[in-house]
Amino acid sequence: MNFKGLPFIVLLFFVTLIEAQETDSAYMEESQIAVDTSYYEEDEKVISYVHPEDIERRYFDSNFKSRYNTDHFNYEPKVQKFTQWEQFKQWLLRWLQDFFNLQDKNAASKWFEYLQNFLAFILVVGVVYFIVKAILNKEGGWIFGRDSKAETIDHTNVEAKLQLANFSELVASSRKKGDYRLAIRFYYLWLLRKMSDNKLIEWDINKTNMDYLYEIKNEGLRERYSYHCYVYDYIWYGEFNLEEEEFRKVETSFNETLRSIDG
Q1: Is the pLDDT higher at 2 or at 262?
Q2: Would you say 174 and 180 are in contact if contact means Cβ atoms under 8 Å apart?
Q3: 3-state helix/strand/coil string of the chain
Q4: 57: buried, middle or exposed (CB in 10 Å: 19+, 13-18, 0-12)?
Q5: C-alpha distance from residue 22 to each of 9, 27, 36, 151 (Å)
Q6: Are the beta carbons of 213 and 229 closer than 8 angstroms?
Q7: Model confidence at 34, in pLDDT bands (50, 70, 90)?
Q8: pLDDT for the residue 188
């Protein structure tokens, strides 16, 4: 075996190894220096700002926030509150949409408007109808300030409604039924109202026949009234039943007295 070239090979190996170590050391030193330089340069940066003379400095007002308290600057959503009537309208609109299968909400609104106008028309017609009916049935007293039950006057309430009673009809009705005793009562009350209307007495439901007798100044009328009081007390309170012929005599006497007051 020939060993003459061996020393040369070993020498070449060591020279190559030394050069590789020197190259790695130089690279690491350059990298470390670059990083360190970057770090220090970044850390040593100083930011400065100089106001130019041509720029005007402005300040905020102390109450500048008050200008932003209006609804224009309120970006929070508001929850809309509906009244009971508005809730009912919304419910009815949804019902109309479902019932008529309406896809357009505006169409449902038109239907609701038509329905509202129709109901208002029915209400007005109903009110007018009842008012006209009340007037035609003589029930319109509540409109003109009179008693709406005036037409129901009979012997049970005639004294309390003396000024509203139609004595001509009451007497005719009693005479037609053959109730002459009740007809005499109506004649007597008719006489009291006639004297009250002519300011001959002052009507009061609590007064007695004698009270009215003292109030009458005309002597002839006082005598006729005294006679009618006697007949009335005897027939009405004495429960005396008259025959038709007897009734006609008493009726004639009452009618003469009534005519004398008017004359």
Answers
A1: 262
A2: yes
A3: CCCCCHHHHHHHHHHHHHHHHHHHHHHHHHHHHHHHHHHHHHHCCCCCCCCCCCCCCCCCCCCHHHHHCCHHHCCCCCCCCCCHHHHHHHHHHHHHHHHCCCCCHHHHHHHHHHHHHHHHHHHHHHHHHHHHHHHHCCCCHHHHCCCCCHHHCCCCCCCCCHHHCCHHHHHHHHHHHCCHHHHHHHHHHHHHHHHHHCCCCCCCCCCCHHHHHHHCCCHHHHHHHHHHHHHHHHHHHCCCCCCHHHHHHHHHHHHHHHHHHHC
A4: exposed
A5: 20, 9, 21, 138
A6: yes
A7: very low
A8: 92
For residue 211, give every residue at least 6 positions away whose Cβ sits within 8 Å of its Cβ, in sequence order, or none.
204
pLDDT of 144 reads: 46
- Contact of 162 with 203, CB cutoff 8 Å: yes
Taking the whole predicted model, whether its pTM rises above 0.85 is answered as: no
Phi first, then psi: give them for residue 211, nearest 5 degrees: -60, -45
Write out the two tokens for 221. 């009328």
User: What is the residue whose two structure tokens read 């002839």?
Assistant: 220
Residue type at position 255: N
pLDDT in tens, 204-222: 888 998 999 999 999 999 9
